[in-house]
Amino acid sequence: MTPKQPPVIATWLLRHLGCSPNNEAVLGDLAEEYSRKGAVWYWRQVLKAIPVSAFREVRGHKWMAVRAIVVAFVVWTFFIGSEPTISYFLPDGPHPSLDLAQAPRHPIGVAGALLYEPVFKGFVLKHNNPVVFLLWIQILLPLTVWAICGWIVGHVDIRLDPKLRIHFHRDLVIVFAGWMLLLHLLLIGPAISHMVDAGASHLVIPVVGYAAASIVAILVGGSLRRTNAGVSRVSNS
Amino acid sequence: MRKGEYLGNFELMVLLALMRLGEDAYGVTIARELEEQTEREVVIASVYATLERLEERGLVSSSLGDSTPERGGRAKRYFRITGAGLREVRDARRYLMNLWKGLPDLKGEKA
User: In this predicted complex, what is the ipTM?
Assistant: First the structure.
């Protein structure tokens, strides 16, 4: 028997990540059809609706999408650059400076080194308090920064085009997350083979986990914005 | 509509569905109509993306309708084809009919 309410998580995802101006109408239509077609159909519709609406919106605003992604990368690069300063304030232990000397001297290697620096750093540097170090440098800080990147991407349209602000932020976040996912997929393959060859196979799981967590952080950061999505919602009363 | 810009296949199907449904054309009914006629599953968001594009081009218009509890209190958005949309459908029909004329029957396919 189909429950009366559609899947909550799927609804939440579409509500926060769907970027069609008619997002509420889409949600209403899905809810109406849910009792007839069931949860699998509902999930399938939601998972297709998010990229469909994002692609449509971004296609009409390409430069804004590029601008948002560039802004996010600047933030991330700034974080990497300032990480030695941040680690200086860590309790207990040496405060080594970070450089990218270990990065291969070609663009892909440098991009990989920038992206996965927090993971590599934990294994390269010796710290007196590994738990604090791991938690701070490798998990909390990078995920916070990725969430901030997602948040910035979601807000970059406010000043640039106020008319679009209700819905436009979401598609940029989706595009940014999708772009990062693609980048991870392109970089992780060669990186894993390089790690295995270099006898550092213990890095594989942290790198993959970190990549997945960064995507989630971007999406969460991007959804941390109150929207006017409920404007067209009509009360039952 | 810009000169030289033809209706896409799905756009034409959506416009035809609007014509068939008349006053009762909103996301669910349009998707059902398309599914019945094409025997394929339709993504409701794709229908809306197409309708939004058609609305930007002035081929359809929309208005907010009523809501029902089964929709979680969300309003329906009804769509109607405009005069410009009707002209586009008529032109598309003429182009397609002209292209079909003189072609031999497709062997192995039902008419």
Answer: 0.87
Which residue is listed with tokens 């068939």? B20
Going by the DSSP 8-state scheme, the letter that residue A135 receives in this structure is I
Local structure of A226: helix, strand or coil: coil
DSSP β-bridge partners for residue B78: B26, B63
Q: Which two tokens stand for residue B60?
A: 């359809």
The dihedral region occupied by A38, where left means phi > 0, alpha psi between -120 and 50, and beta the remainder, is: left
Rounded CA-CA distance A23/A89 in Å is 45
How distant, in Å, are the alpha carbons of A124, A128, B26 from that of A92?
17, 6, 63
Q: Per-residue pLDDT averaged across B92-103, rounded?
A: 90
| Total Cβ atoms within 10 A of residue A236 | 10
The DSSP line for B32-91 is: HHHHHHH-S---HHHHHHHHHHHHHTTSEEEEEEEE-GGGTTBEEEEEEE-HHHHHHHHH
Identify the bridge partners of residue B63 per DSSP, sorted by sequence position. Answer: B78
Convert the pLDDT of each residue in A87-133 to its tens digit: 555 554 444 444 444 445 566 666 666 777 777 766 655 556 566 66
String of DSSP letters for A169-196: HHHHHHHHHHHHHHHHHHHHHHHHHHHH
Smallest Cβ–Cβ distance between A25 and the set B68, B73, B74 belongs to B74
DSSP state of B3: T
Taking the CB of residue B110, how many other CB atoms lie within 10 A of it? 4
Q: What does the alpha-carbon distance between residue A100 and residue A205 come to, in Å, rounded to a whole number? A: 21
Give the pTM: 0.66
Contact residues on chain B for A32, CB-CB shorter than 8 A:
28, 68, 70-71
Give the whole-angstrom CA distance, residue A218 versus residue A88: 26
| A29–B44 CB contact, under 8 Å | yes
Q: Nearest-CA distance from A5 to chain B in Å?
A: 9
Q: Is the dihedral of CA A58, B50, B90, B26 positive or negative?
A: negative
